[in-house]
Specification:
Length: about 160
């Protein structure tokens, strides 16, 4: 069989193509779709992270540069927008921490408590959770709820 004529080889190739051509093409198309889909998803994720970062930067600039009521209101609005638009990002947690700080400065301790509890319950890492827990304990102490603040650290 190794000495097939050219016509026999072409006929054999046609036969193989008829038998395996469709599955081969489908496999190539699926592989390409998977590769491009993965790249698209990664590009989308990077874009979302960049947008969240830019919004967080804007919020920080306003919060730290303008100490007046208008600046605080604008910073809170940017923090809310960040938390609503990118709820699963680290920036949303950081924005909640900054928003809680601004709430404490405005003596809105219940608002700060709510924000800090949100961070404690949804913190993606232990360090961020611990920072939020300590701040929450101080807010609870400020409200006269010392035992509840202490319970945050004793597991009670």
């Amino acid at each position: 069989m190794t000495y097939q004529t050219e016509e026999e080889q072409v006929a054999r190739l046609k036969e193989l193509w008829q038998e395996h051509g469709k599955p081969l093409l489908i496999g190539v198309v699926l592989a390409l779709a998977g590769v491009f889909g993965w790249q698209g998803w990664n590009n989308y994720q990077e874009g979302q992270a960049a947008n969240a970062s830019a919004l967080y930067q804007s919020m920080l600039e306003v919060a730290l540069s303008r100490e007046d009521e208008a600046g605080r209101t604008e910073a809170v609005a940017l923090a809310e927008q960040l938390r609503e638009t990118f709820p699963r990002s680290h920036y949303a947690r950081f924005a909640a921490l900054m928003q809680a700080r601004m709430a404490v400065e405005a003596e809105d301790f219940s608002g700060a408590e709510s924000l800090l509890r949100e961070v404690v319950e949804g913190a993606p890492d232990v360090a961020l959770e611990e920072v939020a827990r300590q701040r929450l304990a101080r807010v609870l102490a400020e409200q006269g709820r010392h035992e509840e603040g202490l319970a945050l650290f004793t597991g009670g």
